[in-house]
């Protein structure tokens, strides 16, 4: 009986069929990255808002005031009395009634005495010039409630984390394409509910669920793409990241053209329904079918692949074998029991955490530094495009470890320099920050590849799932770290990012180099991987690449 890899070579490892499936599934990266970074535009701070004095709404209606006139009567006296008070989070502790004059509502308090009037903290009486432009104005996420915007992004990442485990397990048990399609349906439905949420609680619940299903779409499309190509085509895992970057580039254009947050939310959610059409063009993973003892279905799909690739599969094939020795109920202890496995696991967990935290922190930082948000976001996304090409050019020439370490170190230096560059040379500050964004993108994309190469077949799925879960943990922490530290000093988060990236750059030098080495199949193989520059490892015959992120 031939092995799966032998049959795949005969059917074509990356022919017309795989290229078509790769292109179709890669579109998922565009919608997923739009969801991933959408908080930058959904949560834009309102340009102009103030706290309304009790009774002002009724008085404004009786006096036919415009919003500008109401603002002048409400905020201007407050500012004249105390220049440090903006009128956004505090108001005069008074109440207007029908006896108040329309032309001089503060007349009875005496001229020039507003500075002595008591102040009160604002609670839910804000007025916005553009009330539906973002979730901040929609749900009053300002002043003492500003932390709730951080919470909304943390909840999304918590959904990513839940999706990695729940839908990752479901994809292993019930099939890749089934979970992919259900996840696409879930993202679309939850996205619509998020757009029309009557309150912030409903918004958070369905943003969590959209994050969970969103991770399911990205994870299963990555699995399907990597499982239908040959073992020598691991680079597709890097190329698919280009479509993630395309989503980042497209998002500011969508936000620029659509003035409301509900419109943006629908624009990034509804395309997921189109992916349901893949039911008729994307097959189940034949590798997964073989692990579920469904050899006949797998062989039928392989014959179809061969047909589309212009190949001919021998009619004598009646069964395919696959090496898939899985550890029953693997645990964290299996990943740290031996020295090399323990070192790899701890370093990779830290690398996932750091890459996600810094990447997401730099993306969200664009929303608080001022300037042209749409143009800056587009440029920062465009500079990510060279990342995949740089990786493709370097990893097969100089290996994985050196680009991995260098990208983290460069990101560290760039963040540190950006923090201390003066504001009066914005072009230089932007250039250095852009270099940091490019570098951390390279690090983020390399960790995808390296992680799957440093675990044996028997523990690869579990090991990659566990380590990549730290990515979502980093995403949960990122908004709180960014927005709360930026409130102290705008550049303080960059200092933290610099330290984290520098430590990561040094740690990844301790990882084995996997350039030109077949994927390990046992823990013993991992222990024998080369640990120093220039040292060659033992070549092993590859049997199965049943890995996913």
TrEMBL record:
- On whether Glycoprotein is a keyword of this UniProt record, the answer is yes
| A GO molecular-function annotation | monoamine transmembrane transporter activity
- Which CDD domains does the protein's record reference? MFS_SLC22A1_2_3
Q: Which UniProt keywords apply?
A: Cell membrane, Glycoprotein, Ion transport, Membrane, Mitochondrion, Nucleus, Transmembrane, Transmembrane helix, Transport
Tell me the SUPFAM superfamilies matching this sequence.
Answer: MFS general substrate transporter
Gene3D superfamilies according to UniProt: MFS general substrate transporter like domains
Its GO biological process annotations read: dopamine transport; histamine transport; monoatomic ion transport; norepinephrine transport; serotonin transport
Q: Which residues cross the membrane?
A: 21-42, 151-170, 177-196, 202-225, 237-258, 264-282, 347-368, 374-395, 402-421, 427-450, 462-482, 488-511
Q: Which InterPro entries does this UniProt record tie to the protein?
A: MFS_dom, MFS_sugar_transport-like, MFS_trans_sf, Orgcat_transp/SVOP, Sugar_transporter_CS
**GO CC field:** apical plasma membrane; basolateral plasma membrane; mitochondrial membrane; nuclear outer membrane
Boundaries of every Major facilitator superfamily (MFS) profile domain copy: 100-516
Q: Where in the cell is it found?
A: Apical cell membrane; Basolateral cell membrane; Mitochondrion membrane; Nucleus outer membrane
The reply on keyword Iron is no
Spell out the reaction equation it catalyses: (R)-salsolinol(in) = (R)-salsolinol(out); agmatine(out) = agmatine(in); (R)-noradrenaline(out) = (R)-noradrenaline(in); tyramine(in) = tyramine(out)
* Pfam families membership: Sugar_tr
Q: How does it sit in the membrane?
A: Multi-pass membrane protein
Supply the NCBIfam families for this chain: 2A0119 (TIGR00898)
Give the family, as the similarity comment puts it: Belongs to the major facilitator (TC 2.A.1) superfamily. Organic cation transporter (TC 2.A.1.19) family.
**Name of the protein in its database record:** Solute carrier family 22 member 3
What organism is recorded for this protein? Dicrurus megarhynchus
């Amino acid at each position: 009986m031939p092995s799966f890899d032998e049959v795949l070579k005969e059917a074509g490892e990356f022919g017309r069929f795989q290229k078509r499936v790769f292109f179709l599934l890669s579109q998922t990266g565009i919608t997923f990255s739009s969801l991933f970074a959408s908080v930058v535009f959904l949560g834009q701070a309102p340009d102009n808002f103030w706290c309304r004095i009790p009774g002002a709404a009724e008085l404004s209606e009786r006096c036919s005031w415009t919003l500008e006139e109401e603002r002048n009567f409400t905020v201007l006296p407050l500012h004249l009395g105390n220049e440090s008070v903006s009128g956004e989070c505090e108001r005069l502790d008074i109440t207007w009634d029908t006896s108040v004059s329309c032309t001089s509502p503060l007349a009875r308090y005496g001229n020039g005495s507003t500075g002595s009037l008591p102040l009160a903290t604002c609670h839910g009486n804000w007025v916005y010039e553009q009330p539906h432009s973002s979730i901040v104005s929609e749900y009053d996420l300002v002043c003492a409630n500003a932390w709730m915007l951080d919470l909304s992004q943390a909840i999304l990442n918590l959904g990513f984390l839940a999706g990695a485990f729940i839908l990752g397990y479901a994809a292993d048990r019930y099939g890749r394409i089934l979970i992919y399609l259900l996840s696409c349906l879930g993202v679309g439905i939850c996205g619509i509910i998020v757009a029309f949420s009557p309150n912030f609680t409903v918004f958070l619940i369905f943003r969590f669920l959209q994050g969970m299903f969103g991770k399911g779409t990205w994870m299963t499309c990555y699995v399907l793409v990597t499982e239908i190509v040959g073992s020598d085509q691991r680079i597709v895992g890097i190329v698919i990241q280009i479509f993630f970057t395309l989503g980042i580039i497209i998002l500011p254009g969508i936000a620029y053209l659509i003035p409301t947050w509900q419109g943006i939310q629908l624009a990034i959610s509804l395309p997921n329904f189109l992916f349901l059409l893949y039911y008729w063009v994307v097959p189940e993973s034949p590798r997964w079918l073989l692990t579920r003892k469904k050899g006949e279905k797998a062989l039928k799909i392989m014959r179809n692949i061969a047909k589309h690739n212009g190949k001919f599969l021998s009619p004598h094939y009646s069964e395919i074998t696959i090496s898939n020795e899985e550890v029953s109920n693997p645990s964290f202890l299996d990943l740290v029991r031996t020295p090399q496995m323990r070192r790899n696991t701890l370093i990779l967990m830290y690398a996932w955490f750091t890459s996600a935290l810094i990447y997401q922190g730099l993306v969200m930082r664009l929303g608080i530094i001022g300037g042209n948000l749409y143009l800056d976001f587009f440029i920062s996304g465009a500079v990510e495009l060279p990342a995949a090409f740089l990786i493709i050019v370097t990893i097969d020439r100089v290996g994985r470890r050196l680009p991995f370490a260098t990208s983290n170190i460069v990101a560290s230096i760039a963040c540190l320099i950006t923090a201390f560059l003066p504001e009066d040379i914005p072009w230089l500050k932007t250039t250095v920050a852009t270099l940091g964004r490019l570098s951390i993108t390279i690090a983020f994309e390399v960790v995808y590849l390296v992680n799957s190469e440093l675990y044996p077949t028997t523990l690869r799925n579990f090991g990659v799932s566990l380590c990549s879960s730290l990515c979502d943990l980093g995403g949960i922490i990122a908004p709180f770290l960014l927005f709360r530290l930026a409130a102290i000093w705008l550049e303080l988060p960059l200092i933290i990012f610099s330290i984290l990236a520098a430590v990561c750059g040094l740690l990844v030098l301790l990882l084995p180099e996997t350039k030109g080495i077949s994927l390990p199949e046992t823990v013993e193989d991992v222990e024998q991987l080369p640990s120093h520059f220039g040292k060659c490892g033992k070549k092993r015959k590859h049997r199965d690449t049943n890995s996913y992120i």
